[in-house]
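Bumping with the actual sequence this time:
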Amino acid sequence: MDIARMGQEVEEVSAFYAERHNIDRTDDWLMLKLNEEVGELTQAYLARAGQARDKGRSDHELDADFSEELADVLAQVLLIANRFGVDLASQVDRKWLVWKPSR
């Protein structure tokens, strides 16, 4: 799935979730939610790295938590890009991939 399509699908899920739970997805909410998700990713990373309590979770569960939180961060970034009309694929190409040694 390409990044634009993924962003559209994440938007549909987020809108459904917000409607169901009466959440007003303002610009501020989107940015604050990203911060929350990055915090959860950090927490999962620290637990996985043995730098925080594992709360009795196995290594497999810690790896799964980390992967899931990383997906949450990506989804939130996609939502923000969608809100502000940012073509992430083009921006990554312009800002990052221009430095590829093969170019």
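The tokens above came from a reply further down the thread. The two ends are 25 Å apart (CA to CA).
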